[in-house]
Structure formats: structure tokens, C-alpha cells
């Protein structure tokens, strides 16, 4: 019997994205149930590039049987519906990110617009800037997501079987509430989506609606728990959502923790500066000082998510106090319960 060459286990395909960071990693797993993890954004360039790469690997979009999404952001998931429609692939996404997949529908887009308005109003974003930003975001939703009808919803704990190995679903919320990682215990391979990235600090998305079953969902708290969950795993290589594989996940986790702690200290310094007056400062005012006014346009929501995420945890810990003033949430230092090491 001739020796059969064992095919490569997981193939990385870089799919172009028309906004930073410029590309997303799609992972292709050949075999009897050809599978894509994060097909990428929905754009003619991305479809073409994915199709070309698959053909070079001896496959075709139409052959794909499973599409697994690490989370519901457009640069990872926008193409899922179109790719599934070319063959007979099932689309798997965590149930907390299901709603993110439905923004191709005008009805869902309009609902989201309302939620964005509410978030921006509470954050103290000036009306004109908020309106422009929401238009930009909705425009991206309409362009970058293809319609997807049937989705299989994940909880975490499921196991996907392949010809030579298995991938276990880990629910790793924080970047989004429904972010998952996929872990191959046998070789220590961790497909981490946007949870662990080397060149970018993954932002913690504010959720427009409180995820089901999580009445007090705090994105940053969840992200920190996720890092604590991934740390002890016997990971040998991280296959991230963007950029090259990384072989030292513990160093990466430590760096991401340090980075966020630094950001929290900086936010606290800004709140402490008292520039907002006795009533305190809004998330937008803090963000303007944190990134020196650079957080505008499409990235404003990321900036607000980040500042809000840090403040929510600091409020829970009693480091800052918040009050509602004409629709805006204002933050000031909690002088009664001040954590000294935070203030350094
Ligand atoms: Zn993402």
C-alpha cells in the first residue's frame, strides 16, 4: 500500500480587510469535513482571496462543510453567510454573539442604531459626532456582513472532530461576550481569535444589549477572567485572529495584563486631575485626554468601549464613583475608598 502523505493540519490564510489592521487570519482545516475558522470580512477582495487560497490548497469555498466563528466582528465573521451559501456549510457561533451576525438586516441595524445612541449619550459624546459615528458604523455593518440564515449556537464545551484531532470550544468572553477559543489538547494549539494578539491590545467591546443570563456583564472583568483561564492551559502555540502565530502565551498574557493595568492607572490620573469640575468627567472627556482626541470616526466606539470597560470595573471596586447628570454618566474619584496603589 503506498504511503499516504498526512495533510497539513491547519492552514492559515490571510484575508484582506479594508480597515485596520488590514487582514484577518482565516484557518482552513482540510479533511472529510473541510472547515473554515473565521472566513473574514464580506468584500469582493476577501471572497477572491479566500477562493484563490483554497484552490491553491486543493479545495474550494463550495467544499466547506463547517464555518466556526471565534466571534461576531465583521473582519472575522462578515463572510460567513456568503461562504456558507456557496456550499452547504453550517455556521457555528457562540449564542452571545448571534445578534452581531444579523446586522445585514435593516431592522436589526435600526435597533442597533438606537442602542449606539444610548451608549454615546451616556458617554457624553457630542450629538453631532455621535450621529456621524453611528452612520459610519451602520454603513460598515451593511457593507461588511453577508446575510446568514442558519446558525448553530455554541455554549462552550463542545468538541469539533477532525480526521486527526479535535478542537474543544472554550467560551472566552471579554473582547465580545460571545468570543470563543478553540483548543487542541493533543498538541497545545490554541486558536484564540482576538483574545490574544501580539501587535494589538484587543479592545473590550461594549455590549449593546446585556448578554442573556449575564445581568451584570462587565467586559473587562470577563476579559481578565478569560486571561486567567487561558494562562494555565498547556498551550504551545497560539494561532491568533491577526498576525503570525505566537509561541509564548504566558508572556503574551502578562504583557496584555500589564498594558491594561497601565491604561487603568492613566484613566484614574485623568479622573483625579479634576478637570471635569466637582461633578466629574464623562467617558468621552476622559477618552479625549487618554488618546489626545485621536479616537474619532470608526474607532470612537472602540475608544468608548475601552474607557467605559475600565471605569465599570473601577466603579465596582469603589475606586471611582459615577453619577448621572443630564443623561451623561460622570465619574469622579471616590475619596472615601481610594486604593493607594492605583493612584501611583
Ligand atoms: Zn474582533
Q: Which geometry do the CA atoms define?
A: globular
List the domain count as a whole number. Answer: 3
**Structure class:** alpha/beta
Order of helices and strands: EEEHEHHEHHEEEEEHEHEHHEE
Rounded to an integer in angstroms, the radius of gyration calculated over CA atoms is: 21 Å
**How many runs of DSSP E, i.e. beta strands?**
14
The small-molecule ligands in this entry are: zinc ion
Low-confidence stretches: none
Which descriptors would you attach to this protein?
Arc Repressor Mutant, subunit A; binds zinc ion; 19% strand; 344 residues; 14 strands; 9 helices; alpha/beta; six-stranded mixed sheet; Metallo-beta-lactamase, Chain A; globular
Question: Mind explaining what this structure looks like?
Answer:
This protein has 344 residues and is of the alpha/beta class. The chain has three domains: 11-101 and 146-247, Ribonuclease Z/Hydroxyacylglutathione hydrolase-like (Metallo-beta-lactamase, Chain A, 4-Layer Sandwich); 106-143; 262-343, Winged helix-like DNA-binding domain superfamily/Winged helix DNA-binding domain (Arc Repressor Mutant, subunit A, Orthogonal Bundle). The protein is 35% helix and 19% strand. It has nine helices and 14 strands. A six-stranded mixed β-sheet has the order 1-2-3-4-5-6, covered by helices on one side. The chain has a five-stranded mixed β-sheet with strand order 7-8-9-10-11, with no helix packed on it. Strand 1 (11-16) and strand 2 (23-29) form a beta hairpin. The longest helix is centred in the last third of the chain and has 24 residues, at 249-272. The model has no long low-confidence stretch (mean pLDDT 90). The structure holds zinc ion. The site of zinc ion has 4 residues, from loops. Zinc ion is lined by residues 71, 73, 175, 194.
